[in-house]
Amino acid sequence: MFLTILLILKIGLFVYLTRIEYNQILIFLVGSLITLFFFTLIYFSNNSKKQTLAFSFYNIISAIMFVDTLYYHYFNSLPSITLISQMGQVAAVGDSVKELLNPLNILFLADIPFLFVYSSKKKKKIKREGKVYNRKFRIGVPGGIGLVTAIIFLITYSLGYGTALEKQELYTYHFKDFGNIFKSDIVAEGEEDFSIKEISDKNQLPLRGNSSNEEKKHNGIGKDKNLIVIQVEALQNFVVNNYYEGQEITPNINKLIKDQSSIYFDNYYQLVGRGNTSDAEFVSQNSLYPTIKDGSYALYEDNTFHGLPWILRDEGYTSWVFHGYEPEFWNRDKAYPKQGFERFINKEDFNVEKIIGFGLIDEEFFKQSIPYIKEMGEPFYSFMITLTSHTPFNMPEYLHVLNIKEEHKGTMFANYLQSIHYADKAIGEFIEELKKEGFYENTVIALYGDHSALHCTNEENKKIMTEYLGHKYDYQDVMNIPLIVHVPGQDINETISTVGSQLDFLPTMLNIMGLENEKGIMFGIDLLNSTDSLVAQQNYLPTGSYFDNEKQFIMAGDGIYDHSRCQDLKTRKPIELEKAKENYEKTIREINLSNYILENNLIEELVNGSGKIEIKEEMN
Ligand code: GP9
Ligand code: MN
């Protein structure tokens, strides 16, 4: 009885911590009834070890709730079973996990040691007194509770609220998720609406159309030049061209933007799935959606791709990738060859005496990369992934260069500013080095952030960032990363505010480099020649959420469209939901199609096969 009450209280805490907005009572009721059902099943059974069984059930469910809420706090969604395979990655970023823990979360586990002591004492007492429970299994009570629960399920589903349970109620969610393991490959929502016929021909891809202008803006301005792409860890857009207490946060990046040869995309967004940094790489290189089943590098390790490294190799470039951490992390070592990289310069190739967080410090990373870049020969494509500005942004004291106000000292916000200021310094030094080596004048440099640093689910971040920005800090700010493309020798200095994401990186860069993607499939658009934007998020926001040039649409967590939110991207004023429907449906179709292509390794067909994708009818 005691355990049942405690677990039902925890169900209440779970509903609170997963910020369920609608139908909380229903969700709490169903969770409580299922809990009651299992406990009565155990207590009314004739099992001699019922105390142990009940205690084990209690512990397992408490642990699941602990993991779920921890995950929810960060990702704004519940974890799936397949993500358990990612636990190794979590261990590596242990510091960041510590930062996620809050006292309420710990409540899920805090009572277990006490209960353990209590229960073993009780067991001993029972043994001493020689009590034997010799009750016959009685189905009446659990049966009754089971029946009531089943009726509630039936009513909920017939009223169309089934998805609300499936997406938010603890047991229903995990049962459904478990069932998904045995289901077919399409992972996104709304598959029943998915018509693939209309896009079954390669020429109709991407869904949002390809700019067919003869006179494409900035076409080929980087032709035959070397290319360096710098993916900066946790670089958000708000730090760019911005000051903190009169101090420039990223002076070197700002200098690159101000240069007479740069294009700055200030309405650019992250598009990562469960593979986080590695998905930022994957999406940018390939213009395909990330999967939210697992990291894309892990799930599609052996697929054929035809993204930026391959396309440049076809043009005679040497494509290498650089990162100052262990090669196995995010399955990079296995995935990179199929991505088209000929060599992966990693922790094993660098002198890693100077480490911050879990990898080589950025300054050393860039400095030690120069000899390798020289070794590549021209034309080269170097993809460089930085690391030092990784959460939780704990930098050694001597690298705390910015003066921080008393009230911000020790906050994640302040630590982030110090950390990104350091990354910017390292980038500045690298650019100077490129100038010295004579590469700068003949190399296109593209630089972007991989994903956010300061989550708005963290109350302290939200408060400080809202004060700092002067408006409510939400996902639009969180996911906004900068993209800067510097093309030497051009008289351009532009800011492009077309909405775009990492999905658009490849087509945009191909236009700049004067190349076409003859074999692959791209879901993105060239941001210099099209405004048909769609930033379809799946991670941190429920699938179906998107930003376009006018609006921010956030799909409801319970899967019910009418519970969604839509607001103007600039004024942040509400927009009628009806206006968001068309692009909502498009996001689902695009994600589904991208998943289908990945699951079936269809790019293989294009690269090595008939040159046309055959999409089978049974997909409907
Ligand atoms: C690890 C680095 C960090 O190699 O890329 O990954 P993240 O934790 O940001 O996804
Ligand atoms: Mn990262």
Features of the shown structure:
globular, Alkaline Phosphatase, subunit A, 9-stranded mixed β-sheet, 620 residues, single chain, 4-stranded antiparallel β-sheet, binds (2R)-2,3-dihydroxypropyl phosphate, 12% strand
What does this structure look like?
There is one protein chain. The two termini are 49 Å apart. The strands form 4 sheets. Strands 1, 4, 5, 6, 9, 10, 11, 12 and 13 form a 9-stranded mixed sheet that branches. A 4-stranded antiparallel sheet has the order 14-15-16-17, with helices on one face. A two-stranded antiparallel ribbon has the order 2-3. The chain is of the alpha/beta class and 620 residues long. A hairpin with a 2-residue loop joins β7 and β8 (359-360). It has helices at 2-17, 24-43, 50-75, 87-92, 94-100, 103-110, 112-129, 140-158, 162-168, 170-180, 251-258, 276-286, 296-299, 308-314, 332-339, 362-376, 412-436, 459-469, 475-478, 505-513, 581-599, 603-608; strands at 226-232, 243-244, 247-248, 261-269, 318-323, 343-345, 355-356, 359-360, 380-385, 443-449, 480-486, 492-496, 500-501, 535-536, 546-547, 551-554, 565-568. It has 2 domains: 2-180, no CATH class; 226-523, Alkaline Phosphatase, subunit A (3-Layer(aba) Sandwich), CATH 3.40.720. Helices cover 43% and strands 12% of the residues. It is built from 22 helices and 17 strands. It is globular and about 85 Å long. The structure holds (2R)-2,3-dihydroxypropyl phosphate and manganese (II) ion (MN). The site of manganese (II) ion has 6 residues, from α12. Manganese (II) ion (MN) binds at residues 233-234, 276-277, 450-451.
